[in-house]
Amino acid sequence: MKSENKIRDAALNAYKNDAFDNGFYQYFKERKGSHISKILNSTERKITFKDITYKMLNDWERAGLIDNKREGNEWRRFSIIDAVWLKIIKELRGFGMSLKQIKIAKTSLEFQQNKCGVSMPLLEFYTAFAIGNKMPVLILVFNDGVSIPANYTQYKVTRDFLGLEHHLQLNLNTILQGFFLEVDLSATNKNETPVGLEEMELLAFMRLKTFEKIEIKYKSGKMDLIEGMESVSCRKRIDEILKEQKYASIELIEEDGKVTRILRKIKKKL
Predict the structure, then answer these.
(1) Are the CB atoms for 116 and 31 separated by under 8 Å?
(2) Is 154 within 8 Å of 135 (Cβ atoms)?
(3) Burial, 145: exposed, middle or buried (Cβ in 10 Å; 0-12, 13-18, 19+)?
(4) Is the dihedral of CA 6, 30, 38, 178 positive or negative?
(5) How many CB atoms lie within 10 A of CB 258?
(6) CA trace torsion 165, 169, 172, 178 (10° rounding)
(7) Considering the entire predicted model, what is its pTM?
(8) What is the spatial distance between Cα 156 and Cα 161, in angstroms, rounded to a whole number?
(9) Strand pairing of 222-232 and 258-269?
(10) What whole-number distance in Å separates Cα of residue 86 and Cα of residue 83?
(11) What does each C-alpha distance from 248 to 166, 227, 263 come to in angstroms?
(12) Could you please report the per-residue DSSP string of the chain?
C-alpha cells in the first residue's frame, strides 16, 4: 500500500496547481453527463489489434495488468481507454520493461480512480483532449515505471526549467490514430506561441531557481497571483528582509531557542 501511495504522490506532484485541479476535477464532476466520457468507456465499438495476441492478453491478465471483464468464455470487449492501455503495455514490453514496472505504470494512471469513477482518470482526461482538441500529448514513463501524461507545454516547461529524469516517451496521438484510421487525429498547435505577461512572469520565477516552492493562484480561470517561497540569510534583520520586497511575509524556524532558518514568501500580483 505504501508503494502505491508513493506512486500516486509522484503522479499528483506533477500536476499540483490550481489550473490542472480545476480542469481535471471539473471534467470528472460533469462526467455523468459527458458524451466524450461515455464514448471513451463504452465497449460497444469494435476494436481490433493486429499486433496483440490472445496469449499476450492472457499473460497480461494473469500479471494483473488488465482486468477480466468477461463472463464465462465470451469474447473480450475493450473500450477506447482499454485499447490505449493495451497498446501502452505492448510498447513498454517492446522497450524491455518488466511486468512489475508496467504494473507501476498502471497504478500511476489509476490515480484518483475511486473518486473519479473510471479505471484510468489521468489517461482518460488527456485522451479526451487529444481527440477533441487535437492536443499533443506525451506519456512519460520513468525507470521505475511511474507514468505521467503531459501536454506539450507541460512537458517543455518542466524539461527546460525544472529538469526531467531519463524517461521513455509514448505519443498518445499516434496511438489513438492507429485505432481511428478514417479520422485525422494528428496533433495540432505544435508550434510555440508568444507568451503573455503572466506566463513571462511565471517563467521568470522558475528561472531564478532560488525558490523552494512556487504556487499559482487563479481567479475566474486566469492566473491572479504567484507566490514563491525562498530561504534567506539569518544574519539579516527582520525589517531589512521585509523591506526588500513590496509584498512578502516571513516564517522563522527555531531550534534550541535560536533562529536557524528564515523563509520568505514573495507574492506577485498579476
Answers:
(1) yes
(2) no
(3) buried
(4) negative
(5) 8
(6) -170
(7) 0.64
(8) 8
(9) antiparallel
(10) 5
(11) 37, 9, 10
(12) -HHHHHHHHHHHHTT-SHHHHHHHHHHHHTGGG-HHHHHHH-S-S----SS--HHHHHHHHHTTSS-----TTPPP---HHHHHHHHHHHHHHHTT--HHHHHHHHHHHTTTHHHHTSS-HHHHHHHHHHHHS---EEEEEETT--EEEEEHHHHHHIIIII---SEEEEEHHHHHHHH-TTS-------S-----HHHHHHHHHHHH--EEEEEEEEETTEEEEEEEEEEE-TTS-HHHHHHTSSSEEEEEEEETTEEEEEEEEEEEE-
Cα gap 251→265, rounded to integer Å: 8
CA 25 – CA 131 distance, rounded (Å): 19
Q: What CA dihedral angle connects 86, 91, 96 and 97, to 10 degrees?
A: -50
Beta-sheet pairing, 248-255 with 211-219: unpaired
How do the pLDDT tens digits run along the chain, 270 residues long? 455 455 545 555 555 555 566 577 777 776 664 567 777 888 877 777 888 888 999 899 999 999 866 666 667 788 889 999 999 999 999 999 999 999 999 999 998 888 888 889 989 888 888 887 778 889 999 988 999 898 887 788 777 776 778 889 999 999 988 887 777 778 875 543 333 435 535 545 554 455 677 777 888 877 777 787 877 776 667 777 666 666 667 778 888 878 778 887 877 776
Nearest to 14, CA basis, from 134, 118, 154: 154
Residues sharing a CB contact under 8 Å with residue 172, sequence separation 6 or more, in sequence order: 84, 126, 127, 130, 137, 138, 139, 149
Dig out the grid coordinates for 155 from the structure: 512537458
